[in-house]
Amino acid sequence: MRILFVSPYIPSLIRVRPYNILRTLVKRGHQVTLLALQPPGDSGEALAELRQWCEAVHVIPHARPQTLMNAALALPTGFPVQAAYSRSTAFNQFARDLLSRMSFDAAHIEHLRGAVLADALGDIPVVFDSVDSISLLFSKVLQDAPSTKSRLMAMLDLARTRRFEGRLTQRFKQVAVTSPADRQALVELGCDPNRVKVVSNGVDLDYFNPLPTPREAQRLVFTGKMSYHANIAAAEDLMHKIMPLVWQQQPQTELYIVGKDPAPAVQAFAQTPNVVVTGSVPDMRPYLASATLSLSTVRYGVGVQNKVLEAMAMATPVVCSPQAVSALKVQNGEDVLVGDTPEAIAAHIVDLLRSPEKRQKLGDNARRYVETNQTWDHSVAILEDMYIEAAHTSTTSLVYK
Fold first, then answer.
1. CATH code for 219-373?
2. In this predicted structure, what is the pLDDT of residue 397?
3. Most exposed among 4, 149, 161, 172, judged by the fewest C-beta atoms under 10 Å?
4. Which long-range contacts (CB under 8 A, 24 or more apart) does 274-280 make?
5. What's the DSSP call for residue 83?
6. Which residues pair with 233 in a beta bridge?
7. Residue 309: alpha-carbon gap to chain centroid
8. Low-confidence stretches of the chain (pLDDT beneath 50)
9. For residue range 16-63, what is the model confidence (pLDDT) as tens digits?
10. Cα(198)–Cα(363) distance, rounded to whole angstroms?
11. Quick check: 111 and 130 in contact, CB under 8 A?
12. CATH number, span 2-202+376-391
């Protein structure tokens, strides 16, 4: 198929879902044209790879003044600020010119922030990858986020986003989400259940592959984008509620917090003995490969936790909160160890630190789980059916105002 892949940011190893969907589409023989905004702070580090894969790559700069103006204009309306973020006259003009010269079987639009970009696509059949239900995320942020700023932003946009997401299947012929919980949230808001499909995240099993690196006997790793509020909350829980219990019994245990843009609260943890905060790293794999255990202590979130899949793919045993694996079909005690309290998580950590045999079994089972259940080929096969269905389904076209 000829697919126009529309994204509000440039796919990359940080934007792992669109990056791998795009890569797998090309690998499966589709001709893909990427049309993406480049928002403030997006370095475009993956553009060289993307240009090797795609028929064409078109990038439209999206400057900070434009995003601020979009937010300001949305505030007095009922339109979600998150969705208004990507409004771009330059994008619209370029897209219309492109479609006057080329035809596509379907368009794939990425994320809530990309929804408004559909306005320039005319009658082309669209599969909208919502990724997560942002309404569901905002409701969890209101309950559990650590910062007042995050809660205020969620409060501001929650009602608007619920109305917006409730109309997605009026606008788009097919809608994808990463988990059953996100699908249910959209259906409860008013979306047609027949048009909302679960397309889980996969993991690149060739890239995230067990390495012949000796594991440090008492090293734990926590990974993720460390400016994201849910990861900040998870790191705070880890440092304040879990690690003190671990250190009481295993005082030499090291904790590595690995991920770009650590917030000041996260940077401060580096002052604690046996804690390393790396900031951005060129490659996450050496940290996962050298760790005895990978931790994911998220207290709230939506969709699939990629950090869990990546650790499992590298056969690094995972100890986590229930929320971290709520979108997966893992077996507690076989594929991962889940603790529903700080005390339970700490007990799992200490137990595994003392038992190389248990760690080996858990890591082997984890790798086997992702090989069976979380491949990008499986996810993209579902999307291919959605592209075909979108091309043969008529629906009312609405432009978001």
1. 3.40.50.2000
2. 44
3. 149
4. 274/247, 275/239, 275/243, 277/226, 279/226
5. H
6. none
7. 11
8. 395-401
9. 999 999 999 999 999 999 999 999 988 888 999 999 999 999 999 999
10. 27
11. yes
12. 3.40.50.2000
Range(s) for CATH 3.40.50.2000 in the chain? 2-202+376-391, 219-373
* pLDDT at residue 387, as a whole number: 96
Residue 387 tokens, joined: 């592209």
pTM reported for the whole predicted model = 0.88
At residue 398, the pLDDT reads 43
Q: Per DSSP, which regions of 224-332 are E strands? A: 254-258, 275-279, 293-296, 318-320
Q: Are 124 and 107 in contact (CB under 8 A)?
A: yes
- Tokens 């669209």 locate to 126
Q: What's residue 346's pLDDT?
A: 98
The answer to whether the beta carbons of residues 142 and 154 sit under 8 Å apart is: yes
Strands (E), 138-291: 174-177, 196-198, 219-223, 254-258, 275-279
Task: Give the tokens for residue 306.
Answer: 């990629």
| Residue partners of 91: CB distance under 8 A and separation at least 6 | 35, 37, 60, 62, 117, 120
Consecutive H or E run containing 140: helix 134-144
Q: How far is CA 381 from CA 30, 71, 387, in A?
A: 12, 36, 10
Amino acid sitting at position 43: S
Dihedral through CA 31, CA 84, CA 151, CA 296, nearest 10? 10
